Request: fold
Amino acid sequence: MQPLMIITAVIVLLTYAGVAIGRVPWLRMNRATIALVGAAILIAIGSINENQAYAALDIGTILLLAAMMVINANLRMAGFFNVVTDGVLRLAKGPRILLALVIIAAGVLSAIFLNDPVCILFTPLVIELCIRLKRDPIPYLVGLATAANVGSTATITGNPQNLIIGQASGIPFLTFLAHLGPVAVIGLVICWGIIVLFYPKEFKQKFEDKPTIELSTKTTTYPPLLNRTLLVVGGLMIAFLAGLPIVSSACVAAGLLLVSRLRPSKLLAIDCELLAFFGGLFIVTGAIEVTGLSKQLFVVASPLIHGGIPALSLSTAVLSNVVSNVPAVLLLRPENGTLPNAQQAWLTLAMSSTLAGNFTLLGSAATLIVAEVAAARNVKLSFTAYLKAGIPITILTMAVGIVWLMVVK
Reply:
């Protein structure tokens, strides 16, 4: 190995370790700043030059992510998520039905609008529901976190790693949904069953006099904005299903929503940290390819990557829990397109990297968001409390995904 390649490998490993942990001791750095610093160092030492760094940035993925953020901001301001929560409260006749409604709402919305924003918006609402209903919020928060990941498996727009895979593979939205939608549906049922089984005390107790219970903050909606946003979102879904370009369709939808009398600062509620995180990671993985590190890595990992759906799924799951799912997908992206059945390989990568995120509380951004937002409201979702359901949910859903993809070749 050349000295530059060795230094690059060390910096990449330290960057991925920082991303996986989420912080640097004694410094106030988060995943975005860690990825950006790692990218900057790699450019500074010559592992990747400026033009190569520009080329490594996947602008399509970044644009798609930003467009979905604009759509989410409009839905939030219009009161859409509050309407969904209010509907859950009205329909829930008992704890098992409440859990089912939380899982269905989180799974379906995550498939359409990205799972991370759904978790940010729904976590406080779920906690409030549980407080008003005098229930233990932990099983419902576990349901929210796991369902957000499982539901997002179904579509290209469900989570960040699927956005990357959708752009790299060129798989049509409807084809992606047809192959992984059934896995997500069965997975949501598994989430419900495992949580009910592992939290028996919570689900044996019936609700108290529920009809008198209401949300402490009444649902606020803005009908003109809500109707307009839902109309645009409906058009976007039709465009996806019709096979129109995903990035262009999402950008047009976001552009239509920006034509408004509301303040631009509210409409452009873009998570710049997340976009910066992606930009940094694109450059870091670009350096791995430019220096030739990726070729050496794939020589070692080739038996697993080329070993069929089970082997690729398990290796992706392990890598996703070591360095997180987005970096894992970026690492495997160059080799994945060279496999004999490329579409099946891309779908396997999407399925396994997403479902593996449920293994531990640190496995995905969605699960971390639920835990952190809950902690800010004095509800502790501990690492061990989550593992109780997270491990069996991951094992069973991945088993379903592997078998399904082997059957629908």
Summary: Residues 3-407 form one domain. The chain has 21 helices and no strands. The two ends are 40 Å apart (CA to CA). The CA atoms of residues 128 and 217 lie 9 Å apart.
